[in-house]
Amino acid sequence: MKELFNKKTDKREGRRVRRLHANLSGYYLASVRGFRYFLVVLCNASRIVWVKLLKTKSIDEVYPALDKIRKRAEQLTGEKCAYFRANNGTSEFGYTF
After folding, report:
1. Is 36 contained in some domain?
2. Which CATH number is 43's domain given?
3. How many domains does the chain have?
4. What are the DSSP calls for 51-69, one per residue?
């Protein structure tokens, strides 16, 4: 018998942009403009996704992209980001957040 999956979880944030999740992926063949990586930022409450194309995984390129996405999301919703989560990527995301 198939087990039922509860789609309503209690760990989901109620207010938009309060909790953001980020993931950096890539190392594909370079695009026409030289992009190899992409940064995905997901809002936990609304499931809105922002994607930013990057040429390198260096902190000099990743941090400004993250900061720009965070500021834009806060500006659009009027809420402040309280939690930022990344998958143990301290080399890419740095310790600034």
Report:
1. yes
2. 3.30.420.10
3. 1
4. EEEES---HHHHHHHHHHH
Q: Is 33 a member of any domain?
A: yes
Q: Coil, strand, or helix at residue 38?
A: strand
pLDDT of residue 51: 93
**DSSP state, residue 4:** P
Residues 65-78 have pLDDT tens digits of 989 998 998 888 88
24-82 pLDDT tens trace? 888 778 888 889 999 998 887 788 899 999 998 888 888 899 899 989 988 888 888 88
Name the residue type at position 94: G
Q: Is residue 69 part of a domain?
A: yes
Q: What six digits make up the tokens of 54? A: 């990057």
For residues 18 and 40, give the distance between their C-alpha atoms in angstroms, rounded to a whole number.
16
In a domain? residue 27: yes
Domain interval for residue 79: 19-87
CA 87 – CA 93 distance, rounded (Å): 9
Nearest of 6, 44, 2 to residue 22 by alpha carbon: 44
